[in-house]
Amino acid sequence: MENNPVRILIVEDDMIIGANLSIQLTSLGYEVTAIIPRGEEAIMHIREQSPHILLMDINLKGSLNGIETVKIIQKAKDIPIIYLTANSDDATFEKAKETQPKAFITKPFNKVSLQRTIALVVEQLKESKETIDNEQQIEVLDDRIFVRHNGRMEKLLLDDILYIEADRNYCTLITQKVNHILTCTLKVMQEKLPSTSFVRVHRSYIINISKLDVLADGHLEIGRKVIPIGKSHKGLLLNRIRTI
């Protein structure tokens, strides 16, 4: 998705509106996979083309309206939905909400509203993909962790980890012999590792508490590494030390 344009399917039975949407989206750098007027055709198209986002008119003509079409699609595929609607009555809105759409765009739409709405959904897609990628890089089993390296999962004993240092969306697992760099946030690491052994002591550090050598007022030491202690993390660290 980073190197290829985001692919959007437009399901709209007013072809003038559909064409206008397509022109606007294309000018914003998105790829429109098709403009489809009927729900049945949309179901087939999504099976065959797998667009990233579905722009769906609620009030489709034909045997299936937009909400019914989405419900069928969602049984087979998880795709972000943005509803197009000129009908803002409460009953329709509540039915649409049941399908958990990412957004609603009210007709007549304007380019700025369309641009911002699509941009927000695309950002959510990227975050979702990063989360999945992060989850796939790490697997924790009892006393060991498996990390993805050069296309394969390599074993690392938890007891060998001294501490973990974060730099934005990267984490470095520090051991005495080798360091492992993962495309992963510190929050993901914190959720994966057992809290009995690993404690977050700073926005950028998690430590293996059994490796702690020195505890001072505002920092700690593991080996020769000086690690700061964040004020919000100090209480938890002290409580954990007392229970060792």
Automatic annotation (TrEMBL):
InterPro entries according to UniProt: Bact_response_regulator, CheY-like_superfamily, LytTR_DNA-bd_dom, Sig_transdc_resp-reg_receiver
Alphabetical list of Pfam families matching this protein: LytTR, Response_reg
Gene Ontology biological process terms, A to Z: phosphorelay signal transduction system
PROSITE patterns: HTH_LYTTR, RESPONSE_REGULATORY
Organism: Maribacter hydrothermalis
Record-linked SMART domains: LytTR, REC
Domain Response regulatory: 7-122
GO molecular function, a single term: DNA binding
Name of protein: DNA-binding response regulator
Source taxon at top rank: Bacteria
HTH LytTR-type domain segment(s): 145-212
Keywords: DNA-binding, Phosphoprotein
CDD domains per UniProt: REC_DC-like
